[in-house]
Amino acid sequence: MKWYELRSEEVEKKVNTNLSLGLSEKEITMRQKQFGYNELKEADRPSALLLFLEQFKDFMVVVLLAATLISGLLGEYIDAIAIIAIVLLNGFLGFFQERKAEKSLHALKELSAPQVTVLRNKQWLRIQSKELVVGDIIKFSSGDRIGADIRLTKVKSLEIEESALTGESVPVPKHIEPIRDDHISLGDQENMAFMGTMVTRGSGEGIVVATGMNTAMGQIAELLQSAETMITPLQRRLEQLGKILISVALVLTFLVVVVGILRGHELYEMFLAGVSLAVAAIPEGLPAIVTVALSLGVQRMIRKNAIVRRLPAVETLGCASVICSDKTGTLTQNKMTVTHLWSGGKTWSVSGTGYDLKGSFFAGEKEVEVPNIKTLQQLLTFGVLCNNASLKEKKDEYIIDGDPTEGALIVAGMKAGLQRDLLLNQFEIIEEFPFDSARKMMSVIVKDHSGNQFVITKGAPDVLLNVSESILWENKQQHLTEEYGNYVKNAIEELASDALRTIAVAFKPIRPNQKIMNELEAERDLVFIGIQGMIDPPRPEVKAAVQECKDAGIKTIMITGDHLITAKAIAAQLGILPSGGKVLDGNALSKMEVEDLEEIVEDVYVFARVSPEHKLKIVKALQRKGHIVAMTGDGVNDAPAIKAADIGIAMGITGTDVAKEASSLVLLDDNFATIKAAINEGRNIYENIRKFIRYLLASNVGEILVMLFAMLLALPLPLVPIQILWVNLVTDGLPAMALGLDQAEDNVMKRGPRHPNEGVFARKLGWKVVSRGFLIGIVTLAAFMIVYGRDPSNLGYAQTIAFATLVLAQLIHVFDCRSERSIFHRNPFQNMYLVWAVISSIVLMLIVIYYPPLQPIFHTTAIEARDWLLIIGLSAVPTFLLAGSLLTRSRSKPRML
Ligand code: ATP
């Protein structure tokens, strides 16, 4: 279908819709049923069966199964069946964990799925893009990604970047006129917008004409199946480390087997023991457990309003040393209220709070009637006309639909009795040049009833001053001399030093029918009218969050398009700007190279009047200084800086699709405090991963050493294969998982950020693994030797004692793993998952030891009460022997910047 050839009314008829009402509920359900969701087909996810089978692809597990088969053939049925049962159980456990991790990561993807604004049943709604059907009317603006193929019906300076489809990266200006041509390429269909392309400027509306696989993108979708690698640096490091650990475990196991055989053990016996040991001791599952821990952490982050879009960011978050945060909406509430106005040397104040329409105007203490003061009336009227926001009533409260800055101007106007709807009856808007944060201005061209036309511009006062030629002063238009200019500058500074955000309004008459081609032509030689100053209160929770970041060695930098003095005042209120801290504005920044900025960047806390491209410079300078930078953004132009930052953060509410797609973290509530919470969580996740690495590896070291030492000492096997496998499944598995759910230590935000190149075994982890593992091996062997020495005829009993000691030693050690410092620093009952995991492991161990039907399977004998003293005493040694010495030594200090 050549939609571009038709007029919009023809398209409307063809797809059976209504441009002013949208589709009805009934129609939508019918179309969704008929044509399905507006989605591109995804590559299939691995099936459950495949995922389950993957649990057994490990080489040693295959060897173990083969060995078990042989022992089964040799008549050792009980052993064979028990081993297979344990391997299967292990497989199920791994399968369920991975399945859950995969599901939660998939759900995450759904959460960050794009949304569109659609007209349905006469109302504009936000819906998920996949819900779109042919005939839907959608609207979009700069920064949005187009959700389906549409025939445009309205455009305002609309430009769309279609490189995803055509390869052409220069944005295409769009219009709505039909194009009569038989064969034109997608790139030339200027009255169409296609799924997956990006609005870079202006805004528009259109009718959906194709969805899902029927779109132009759908036709090439197969080519686009880009599988983004989601593996994190730690996972990669662990994979490499895993290879080394496997080799070490294999060598040691081999040693156990060889020494065992030399000491006269049977080949078959040693073979099965060796293979079981290898299966138990090889930490092949580490990367998988890390994935599980990451996905659990990611879920916790969602509950705190932070959505992770790229898994590696979870780790990087823990290394962040600088947060560069936007001001408006992130540090402040983005709930603006005009409180002061300035024009022609006079200042007025306005009463009222928030978007409440009650309020009056005052000159000093005296209330004034706005219509009596011509410039004030003009300042407010033009503020309302050069505007795209509207006010909506919701549950007895007014809310702003659109930009809050513009909303504040509407509310100020209404306090003076100026209604936008009524004003639009007098003035017709015939052209608009939308606001962008690089120009810091917006303009409209209006025409009144007598055919007079003029440009109205509003924007940052200092910028407007530069493009004004005259000024309204005492109701007269005066040439804007340096003297008048200074009055204006003083007024800006005065308003800004009260932390007010300032917007100036200017205008210029133009000839009837004069065609203004672009914003450059519109926004020059203006007549400056005055300034409106609005408060934007800081978010109440931010000050404490900034302080917590400081304690954690993380510097907060404010980056804003606002005036330097406004920014400074708010930064000081929030504790971002210390005394002596530098502030820098966009002008100065423009003149600097990255190298120059690098010189001073450590001292700068506020960047004001910046344009989005400055953000990239700031990120680069900070990175050159060795910082790990978190950078927030919301607009299209912020995307490069968000991408370049180590942690790109996009706003969930005000952020554009483009910014979100470039980011690795999305803040659902746009709140700075959420960044802090995410960093906290990021650090915690990393610490939890370290905790279970320590636990698992120390356990493995213990298991190998007890066997190795016994062989070297010419002792019988202290543990039988099934016991080793049992320890691996029950004792290692459950508590390790519970460690992944552990709470942060109280000092996690009181120390400096982690170095990104820090190795897995840094901060004494390696030492702890080896020393604790060694001691676990020694005490197990000691228990075995004592009991075996007492009665060498009862080997089974001594093995049961060794089994119980090994299990208990590990289960006590797990509580020590919770702290970087020592076991005494943490309340064991804080993590009830762990307490229950340990209790269940103990109960299961007791069942295996005391339940007669299981005794022959696990080669166990009921332990006498007095021997429990020995077991408990010895198993506490590995944890408490070294914990005491560390207690006095460790006092971690935050590494400050
Ligand atoms: P940030 O969110 O990065 O803290 P910001 O939102 O204050 O910054 P911009 O939106 O780029 O930054 O605004 C910069 C300046 O442009 C403001 O100080 C204001 O003077 C002016 N401005 C903001 N919004 C508008 C608008 N809708 N129309 C005209 N001028 C505007």
From TrEMBL:
Enzyme nomenclature, EC number: 7.2.2.10
Keywords, alphabetical: ATP-binding, Calcium, Calcium transport, Cell membrane, Ion transport, Magnesium, Membrane, Metal-binding, Nucleotide-binding, Phosphoprotein, Translocase, Transmembrane, Transmembrane helix, Transport
GO biological process: export from cell
Gene Ontology MF annotations: ATP binding; ATP hydrolysis activity; metal ion binding; P-type calcium transporter activity
SUPFAM superfamilies, per the entry: Calcium ATPase, transduction domain A, Calcium ATPase, transmembrane domain M, HAD-like, Metal cation-transporting ATPase, ATP-binding domain N
CDD domains the UniProt entry points to: P-type_ATPase_Ca_prok
Membrane topology of this protein: Multi-pass membrane protein
Annotated ranges, domain Cation-transporting P-type ATPase N-terminal: 2-76
GO cellular component: plasma membrane
Source taxon at top rank: Bacteria
Ranges annotated as spanning the membrane: 48-71, 77-96, 244-264, 270-294, 692-714, 720-741, 769-789, 795-812, 833-853, 868-887
Root EC class: translocase
Protein family per UniProt: Belongs to the cation transport ATPase (P-type) (TC 3.A.3) family. Type IIA subfamily.
Protein name according to UniProt: P-type Ca(2+) transporter
Classification of source organism: Bacteria, Bacillati, Bacillota, Bacilli, Bacillales
